[in-house]
Design the sequence.
């Protein structure tokens, strides 16, 4: 798929930490309850760590108990895209940054109202910009 932000894997390795690269470019995950933003309660915006696109707002962040920052909706409908992920012997819905295609996490249908969705996102895929 063609994304607005295009870089070679070598270029991504220069701008991302090894952990960010593993998660964002190689579709990895961080251990539950260890991410920088899991406990963050400050007001602000969550941006893509790879390209800076605005992805989520603190207004939609909630405590899901999952171990990862969770949101019930993206900042804008077009901020993220999804695709089917059949890795690890299960079928899930992967969440990607619409601007650069970076792996963010997964979305599940067990979130709060008004959407009923739980966007379970790796902290390493995010940068936080305080209001």
Sequence:
């Amino acid at each position: 798929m063609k994304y607005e932000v295009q870089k070679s894997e070598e270029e991504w390795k220069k701008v991302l930490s090894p952990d960010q690269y593993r998660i964002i470019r190689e579709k990895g995950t961080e251990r539950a309850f260890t991410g920088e933003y899991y406990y963050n309660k400050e007001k602000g915006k969550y941006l893509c760590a790879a390209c800076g696109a605005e992805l989520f707002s603190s207004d939609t962040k909630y405590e899901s108990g999952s171990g990862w920052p969770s949101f019930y909706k993206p900042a804008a409908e077009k901020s993220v895209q999804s695709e089917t992920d059949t890795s690890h012997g299960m079928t899930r819905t992967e969440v990607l940054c619409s601007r650069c295609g970076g792996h963010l996490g997964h979305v599940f249908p067990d979130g709060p109202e008004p959407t009923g969705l739980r966007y379970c996102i790796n902290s390493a895929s995010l940068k936080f910009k305080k209001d």
